[in-house]
Design goal:
269 residues, 72% helix, mainly alpha, Rhomboid-like fold, 14 helices
Length: 269
């Protein structure tokens, strides 16, 4: 490995500490390409996604209060505030202005405490069951992929309508679980039926609150396709470990980049 210590010393940083960090990152990256899992693979992706959603929502509430919105920021944020925090709309923001990061940020933006509360409740209930079965890397890929398939359906259904919320990915998890656990045969039928019940509950809730049905359908179909194609069993997981580790890392980088780019818009006059 290249000796970066003199470089960091010249920057006034602790060269030894940064040299050690670079060595650790290099080791983690090598392990990733050997199929040994993401760095910090013991961390639950469900908890990380829950935390990311809650922190993003908290930041939105703080900005809303600072703007004088009061309780409205918590209960029913106005469209301008949702837009500021990454609401997705194909026309004009994405297709005309090139704000492609909104295809991911919308999934971390919620239209009030009831909206985020329900989505996070479903994620908390069904997420760990799927994570334990397929592993952290595949879960991250599934969650991110279905956020994209959900918003893609919106392009054809309502390109001028702003959308927010994690429900596209939530329905993606449910669609995946129904398809995947069904393929497992008798051992997976109880979990399949459990996911069916949650899907029906979420669908009814969505009808009551006027949710984005296009996103729900797009997420569910994307998740079901993933569930039909993903290898079942330990042998299949081992064979695709390297691929999913790398794709999961790309998903994490894309999501973090999208959120950072959205925050960068706050600096514009």
């Amino acid at each position: 490995m290249v000796n970066f210590k003199p470089f960091f010393d010249k920057l006034g940083l602790n060269g030894s500490r940064w040299q050690w960090r670079l060595m650790r990152w290099e080791k983690n990256l090598a392990a990733l390409f050997r199929g040994e899992g993401l760095p910090g693979d013991g961390i639950s992706p469900v908890k990380v996604i829950l935390a990311a959603n809650l922190i993003w929502f908290g930041l939105m509430i703080l900005q809303g209060v600072a703007l004088g919105l009061g309780p409205q920021a918590l209960l029913k944020p106005p469209l301008a505030l949702l837009h500021r925090f990454g609401a997705q709309r194909w026309i004009p923001e994405v297709l005309y202005f090139g704000q492609w990061w909104r295809c991911l940020t919308y999934a971390y933006t919620h239209a009030g405490v009831i909206h985020i509360g329900f989505n996070m409740l479903v994620l908390y209930q069904v997420g760990p069951l799927i994570d334990r079965e397929i592993g952290a890397s595949r879960f991250v890929v599934l969650y991110t992929l279905t956020a994209l398939t959900a918003t893609l359906f919106g392009l054809f259904w309502h390109p001028h309508t702003p959308v927010v919320g994690a429900s596209g990915s939530i329905f993606g998890l449910l669609g995946f679980a129904v398809a995947y656990f069904h393929r497992m045969g008798p051992p997976g039928l109880a979990l399949r039926n459990f996911m069916f019940r949650w899907a029906a509950f979420a669908f009814v809730f969505g009808l009551l609150v006027g949710a984005d049905n296009a996103g729900h359908l797009g997420g569910a179909l994307g998740g079901a396709a993933f569930g039909l194609l993903l290898p079942v069993g330990a042998r299949g997981r081992r064979a695709t470990a390297k691929l999913f580790n790398v794709v999961a890392l790309l998903c994490v980088v894309a999501t973090v980049t999208a959120l950072v780019l959205q925050m960068a818009t706050w600096l514009r006059v």
